[in-house]
């Protein structure tokens, strides 16, 4: 088992961290708010540790579990400390009124994050189509991933599989645009057609 670093201490960080801890990995939590990071570590238990925000992460896989609006600042705070890391972007860059995505035309949150990351880091999109409370319940769920580096995607797939999730590769990082649109679709479906947030996207492979 390995150490996985989570930057952030919100509900998605807790849901993903819970899965990681349950799978036997060590979770390192780093947050701008050290008290929140410590509270999440205490909640996770299972040998979870706090990291120093902005310092070199202990994990080779770093989950950026902050709102998209805070992603650029987090990348700037870490700078070259993320060089050589696999960065998992979980964000959904959705407009507050749910009218669409706030990313530049022809780009995605993950692609914008990749622009701000060190050249030696590899960004993989994952987790953005899974609601935190559904993830926290357990159970085998489909997890879509996108990224340009095959080795980075293989490592993320191995991690997801260890979390009892089914990794489904949708292609290069440009496909993060589609996954983020799917994230928006899931929110719209929960608020309208499904009438519940207890939903997850599942693929039947015949």
Task: Give a structural overview.
The chain is of the alpha/beta class and 206 residues long. The chain contains seven helices and eight strands, in the order βαβαββαβαβαβαβα. It has helices spanning 11-22, 34-44, 68-78, 109-116, 132-137, 150-162, 176-191, and strands spanning 3-7, 26-30, 49-50, 61-64, 86-89, 122-125, 141-147, 165-169. It has an eight-stranded mixed sheet, with helices on both faces. Helix 1 (11-22) links the parallel strand 1 (3-7) and strand 2 (26-30). It is globular and about 40 Å long.
Helicity range of the residues? Answer: 25-40%
Strand count, sense and barrel status of the largest sheet are: 8 strands, mixed
Average predicted local confidence, pLDDT: 97
Main-sheet strand order equals 3-2-1-4-5-6-7-8
Structural class: alpha/beta
N-to-C series of helices and strands: EHEHEEHEHEHEHEH
Strand content: 15-25%
Cα-based radius of gyration, to the nearest Å: 16 Å
Query: Which blocks of ≥5 consecutive residues have pLDDT under 50?
Result: none
For the secondary structure, the number of strands is 8
N-to-C span: 32 Å
Alpha plus pi helix count: 7
Query: So what's the overall shape?
Result: globular
């Amino acid at each position: 088992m390995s150490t996985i670093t989570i930057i952030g201490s919100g509900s998605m960080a807790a849901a993903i961290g819970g899965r990681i801890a349950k799978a036997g990995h060590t979770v390192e939590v780093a947050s701008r708010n050290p008290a929140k990071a410590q509270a999440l570590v205490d909640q996770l238990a299972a040998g979870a540790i706090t990291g120093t925000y902005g310092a070199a992460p202990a994990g080779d896989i770093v989950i950026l579990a902050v709102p998209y609006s805070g992603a650029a600042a987090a990348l700037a705070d870490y700078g070259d400390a993320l060089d050589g890391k696999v960065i998992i972007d979980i964000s959904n860059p959705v407009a507050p009124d749910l009218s669409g995505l706030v990313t530049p035309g022809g780009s995605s949150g993950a692609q914008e994050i990749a622009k701000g990351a060190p050249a030696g880091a590899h960004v993989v999109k994952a987790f953005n189509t899974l609601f935190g409370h559904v993830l926290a319940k357990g159970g085998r769920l489909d997890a879509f991933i996108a990224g340009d580096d095959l080795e980075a995607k293989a490592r993320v797939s191995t991690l997801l599989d260890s979390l009892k999730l089914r990794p489904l590769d949708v292609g290069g990082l440009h496909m993060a645009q589609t996954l983020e649109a799917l994230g928006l679709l899931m929110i719209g479906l929960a608020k309208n057609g499904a009438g519940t947030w207890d939903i997850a996207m599942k693929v039947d492979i015949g």
